[in-house]
Amino acid sequence: MKVGPRNLITDVAGLRVGNAQDNALKSGCTVLVGDAPFTAAVHVMGGAPGTRETDLLAPDKLVQEVDALVLSGGSAFGLDAPSGVCDGLRAMGRGFKVGDATVPIVPGAILFDLLNGGDKSWTVNPYKSLGLAALADASQDFELGTIGAGTGATTRELKGGLGSASVVLDNGITVGALVAVNAIGSVIQDGQKHFWAAPFEVDGEFGNHGPAPMMDPLRPSQPFAPSSTNTTIAIIATDADLTQAQATRIAVAAHDGMARAIVPSHTPFDGDLVFVAATGKIPLNDPPADQLAIGHAAALCLSRAIARGIYEATAAAGDTLPTWKDKW
């Protein structure tokens, strides 16, 4: 197993990521789009999710492939971001064919960033335009940290952000993660600079500080704020040829990576969710063993991506929390 050439989810060939944000709003959205439709699945473990078109990702549903996936800030308002992506894809002639109609299939998930110090006094919902702009921005290369859906994200004591990571398995299959980190829990150990994800770090990708020399996970440094609502939303991608049922199991396994990197995760106040995108380019030689390896890699990538999103966050006027780099 080795890190992909970009250490981004776009190391999975045929996928691109676009970001759009409004810095005054302190919010934005992120889109994952394929050169062609791809198999998609989802698993939700948080108690307060906000989603669009996720029911159709169940293995028994008619539509087995999607055109794009969207992660957005804005709480329920952000569910309009996929509408902008749909408009853009329709203009390209992309979508599910129903007679003479073309219907882009764009599931999405949102996080709560309405109390982060940004100007939320809009009269017209801005997220549809942000979705369209993110689609237009789609590329194999993209920045991490305070960008896209991670623009206004927060964690318990630090500013959140957009993270990504990848690995290439020994069998040639590539796995990548993309995540907007916006958790009630903490990504650092007991108020120290050390990330919970430190045991999984590769090549100093988030500072190379290692695990905390002393920690007491039963005594968090700050009390939790159960009146707030957050949510960490992620996408796992692979070039393996997975059915929707197999992809769903990968989404379940990937949540282990979230739990290793955020303490606590999957709370009643987080809508923690993982999508899976499978482009189907590489067949499984040994389906059970390959599926196990992909699920393990997905969890590892997600832990690393979470820490990278926090590590790369940058400060902006009006922030309610410091960045990791500013604090440490």
Point out poorly predicted stretches. none
Q: Given the C-alpha coordinates, what overall shape results?
A: globular
The tally of helices reads: 5
Major β-sheet annotation? 9 strands, mixed
- Specify Rg, calculated over alpha carbons: 18 Å
Topology:
Blueprint: E1 15-22, E2 27-44, E3 51-52, E4 65-72, H1 81-91, E5 96-98, E6 101-103, E7 108-110, H2 127-136, E8 161-168, E9 174-181, E10 233-240, H3 244-261, E11 273-282, H4 287-311, H5 324-327
Helix pairs in contact: 1-2, 3-4
Question: Would you write up a description of this structure?
Answer:
The chain has five helices and eleven strands; from the N terminus they run ββββαβββαβββαβαα. The chain is of the alpha+beta class. It has one domain: 4-Layer Sandwich (L-amino peptidase D-ALA esterase/amidase). Strands 1, 2, 3, 4, 7, 8, 9, 10 and 11 form a nine-stranded mixed β-sheet that branches. The chain has a two-stranded antiparallel sheet with strand order 5-6.
